[in-house]
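Cast an eye over this sequence plus tokens and walk me through the fold:

***
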Amino acid sequence: MLRHPQGMQRNVALAEDDADLRRMLVRGLSEEGFEVEAAVNGADLLRRVEHFDPQVVVIDIGLPDSDGRDVCQALRARGVTAPVIFLTARNALTDRLSGFHAGGDDYLVKPFAFKELVVRLHALIRRGQYDAEPIGEGLAMNPAAHAVSVEGQTVTLTPTEYRLLAKLAAQRGDVVRRRELTLAAWPDGAIVHDNTLDAYVARIRRKLRELGHEDAIVTVHGVGYRLG
């Protein structure tokens, strides 16, 4: 489902499992004039954005049911274009880069100043005032189960397979370069050879064949792959 900002609304979708922090953020953001839809985990967030039109999304990376980066990729695969800011206790360069490669737009390390979050949210909303093209119909991704569904049929993916397919789905119709796919699928900076990437794509193709989409991933020789 395609999402994009409307008018001057300031709608925030939030996924944070820490109850005290979640309550503080909901209260504080509401006082700042935001309408907040708060979720307790990744699956809850994905359900809520079906009925809520966020202008910006705040996701804790360390959710109890899934990695927040995988949740971000699931949002992108569904056509949700709202900017995403990650909350995390980790501040290593690889952690920050992995958030951007997963489709995130900003990164805030805990503990953080609430006023800084508000300023960043306003900046992301201003940056996100654009319309985006839909990525296609029928593809649903579940980061908690690491699964993909097409028209009610579901297959389970490994976490790496899931991240690869989510990256392709987020840029559906465009060629995604091999380096981009590697960074998205192995966000912790592992050294990955070309034949390893190709092997994972082949595994995803076999699983998509079970859903009747065996030709969904197109090889662009010398460049990368494209989800048709």
